[in-house]
Amino acid sequence: MTIWTAFEVFVTLVCSSPLLHTQATLHPAHGPLLGSATIAARNNAEVTDIASSTEGQNRLNHSRGRDFDELIALNANISEAETSGDKHFLDGVIAPALAFGRADTTVVDRAGFLANVKQSAKRTIETESISFFGSQRALVTCVVTTDVNGVEKRFHNLRLFIRAPDGSWKVLAWANEGIS
Fold this sequence. Notes:
This protein is of the alpha+beta class. It has one domain: Roll (Nuclear Transport Factor 2, Chain: A), CATH 3.10.450. A 9-stranded mixed beta sheet has the order 1-2-3-6-7-8-9-4-5.
């Protein structure tokens, strides 16, 4: 089976998920054995599967539909935990090491991030995209809106997730930037 045949099978399987539209496109990348499949989701997010393969080695054997659902829910739960000041939950979804880039450009580690978690204004989250790189890494982009000193602010977030040995997703890196 060629990588493109695998992509077609992948797109067919994923598009049967009730959370996804049935419209999908394939984007060839750099050569016949690299590519990505982008599927538009109901909430306007896109899921992209970046894959590479050598002859006889197909890396598209993992169900992306379940991972997509888990990451959408996890990102919503992260925002809820930030709002409620739930350090225990956040401690459980952050990898043993974390690089966290704040909107003011300061960078803190895991301990620094958790030390500053406290109850705050409600957040809303709009997931823009989820990109999978192999079966162990995913990049989520989203916009978080919250009240800061009486003014509604929007922040673009990049969240890099890795798969833990138990199969769960953990945040390894997280960067924020304020947007207009």
